[in-house]
Amino acid sequence: MAKTRVAVIGAGLGGLSAAISLAAKGFQVEIFEKNDRIGGKLNLLEKDGFRFDLGPSIFTLPQYFESLFARAGKRLGDYVPLVAVRPHWRNFFEDGTRFDLDPDDAVQAREFSKLAPGTWDDFRRFRAYSKAQYDLVAEGYFDRGIDGLRGLLSHYGPRRLFLGMDSLRSMDRSVRRFFRDPKAVDAFNYFIKYIGSSANQAPGFMNLMPWIQYGYDLWYIPGGLYGLARGLGKLAGELGIPLHLNAPVKRLDREGRRISGLVLEDGREIKADLFVSNMEILPARRDLLGEDGAKLGKVGWMKPACSGLVIHLGTDRIYPQLAHHNFFYSKDQKKHFDRVFRRGLLPDDPTLYVVAPTRTDPGQAPAGCDNLKILPHIPPIDPKNPLMHADYAALKDRVIDKLERMGLPDLRRHIILEDFWTPLDIEARYRSNRGSIYGVVSELGSNWGFKGSKRSGDLANLYFTGGSVNPGAGMPMVVLCGQKVADAITEDGFRAGA
Ligand SMILES: Cc1cc2nc3c(=O)[nH]c(=O)nc-3n(C[C@H](O)[C@H](O)[C@H](O)COP(=O)(O)OP(=O)(O)OC[C@H]3O[C@@H](n4cnc5c(N)ncnc54)[C@H](O)[C@@H]3O)c2cc1C
Asked: From CA 114, how far away is CA 233, in angstroms rounded?
């Protein structure tokens, strides 16, 4: 019996996960990737003895990676080693206050004693609420792969959906219901970084994110996070999935309500029975299907999540005051969120995420050196108001000034290697919508945190996977998405043998 052929466009984590899940079900899968390596935004830079994870650096929710390997009868641990990171985060404030987030109760209580009296009690109540939000969202929206409002309503019922899930308040308003200390508010609001949105505008149930760390821990892959791409590539190879690198897809050809084939930039035509796009929904519809005007307007609600200025610094000294993961807060984070997410302006005083992986893995930099990744969230590209490289370079200077002021003295003088990516680089490399790094932004009153559907709707054999698709961005969510796409395909009646 001939096998059903599936062409996957893109070898990001969402595409790899869909490809592996479909191959494990017996489909004949082939992947076409624009770039010269797999992993998409999970990318790396190796130079002069320094190693940088260019994209993700925080690994959470290992269960959604384990379930992918289990589909192929394998164990995650045999392909991707994981070690727990301690502390989870270190938080730095302009007035010199520093405190850590740590899953150990005794350590966490001691750390919160640096803040207002009662913060530990505030946190315990908040953590219980965060767990309840996580459990509710995970048992339906995540684990059942629910895509639309109808599915959500039928699974949860209106009461659990609108009242059980914290759907009507903003994340920030809910954090403030629990914490009296403004620094604790800043730290827990900044969990929104995982999906590149604003705590002022994201729905309250996004407060499920702290439980992701406190309940399931925060992990690192020795050798660097690119080890996950290598592990998935190995598994895909064992499943016999052909992988075409440097193979950008230029066009999808329609025949009625179906896609009949894809055309590569080099002119080759590929036929398949099913197509899975790991290219985000909006760019795929615009660039591969040639949709514009009113037709594209249907996906116009998919506003991109933030982009980032991603700065990689090799320094000729170690900054021992840094933990593996660090946050340097804006003096006024509410204003910072507003400036970036509502007004679309480059931040004057951003909250900074700083990663120093040699704390867990000394081999990531030459002896006596640090490799620092610094990430302020910034607006995606605005075609009506394009910024120049010089605008981004000026922000980079403000970022380094801020770090020198807040605890990394003479940073500029100790830089021996520098690399930085602007939204223009991110868009060009991964073809994400306007250089977004986390797919679609989550906003109350707009999409309420939900993303696009796995099924294309109008085209019976086209599916989408990855950060612009439910359940959304971040490594665990896109890896879960790929698995749910494979399930949607078989639920729709497609069989591995044609
Ligand atoms: C700087 C940064 C920091 C991050 N930090 C974290 C973190 O700490 N933890 C976390 O969990 N997540 C983090 N993320 C988010 C995470 O990286 C993404 O959510 C996830 O990797 C997206 O996977 P994806 O499969 O949706 O898309 P992508 O990784 O963008 O993959 C899409 C793939 O499709 C390819 N492609 C696109 N168009 C075509 C075409 N026409 N033809 C062929 N191929 C095509 C692209 O080249 C790419 O390889 C971060 C992202 C960035 C950029």
From this structure: 45
Strand spans (E) along 165-242 = 219-220
Residue nearest to atom 24 of ligand 1 (CA): 466
Residue 351: DSSP 8-state: -
Query: Phi, psi (5° rounding) for residue 19?
Result: -60, -45
The answer to whether 15 and 281 have CB atoms below 8 angstroms apart is no
Place of tokens 């930099």: 365
Where the chain has pLDDT below 50, the residues are: none
Q: Encoding tokens for residue 36?
A: 């010269």
Task: Tell me how far apart the terminal alpha carbons of the chain are, to the nearest angstrom.
Answer: 7
State which of 278, 281, 377, 463 you would mutate to test the pocket of ligand 1, scoring each by most atoms of that ligand within 8 A of its C-beta. Answer: 278
Q: Is 300:320 a contact under the CB 8 Å cutoff? A: no
Residues 6 or more apart whose CB falls under 8 angstroms from that of 320 comprise none
State the span(s) of the chain assigned CATH 3.50.50.60: 5-47+225-301+450-491
Supply the CATH classification number for the domain 5-47+225-301+450-491: 3.50.50.60
Query: Closest Cα to residue 473, out of 361, 335, 396, 377?
Result: 377
For residue 148, the tally of other CB atoms under 10 A from its CB is 12
For 440, which DSSP code? B
Burial class (CB in 10 A: 0-12, 13-18, 19+), 160: middle
Nearest Cα residue to atom 32 of ligand 1: 12
Residues 206-240 have pLDDT tens digits of 999 999 999 999 999 999 999 999 999 999 999 99
Ligand 1 neighbours, Cβ below 6 Å, are 9-15, 32-35, 40-42, 55-58, 248-249, 278-279, 308, 310, 375, 430-432, 437-438, 466-467, 473-475, 478
- Asked whether the beta carbons of 414 and 389 are under 8 A apart, the reply is no
Q: How far is the CA of 351 from the centre of ligand 1 (A)?
A: 22
Cα separation, 352 vs 88, in Å, equals 16
How far apart are alpha carbons 191 and 207 in whole angstroms? 8
Q: Which pLDDT value is given to residue 498?
A: 64
**Residue 376, phi then psi, degrees to nearest 5:** -85, 140
pTM of the prediction? 0.98
Specify the residue for token string 């790396």: 44
Distances (CA, A) of 336 to 237, 243, 303, 431, 466: 45, 42, 19, 27, 28
- Give the start-end residues of each E strand in 145-266: 219-220, 243-244, 249-255, 258-264
The predicted-structure confidence for 32-49, as pLDDT tens digits, reads as follows: 999 999 999 999 999 999
Task: Classify residue 493 as left (phi > 0), alpha (psi -120 to 50) or beta.
Answer: left
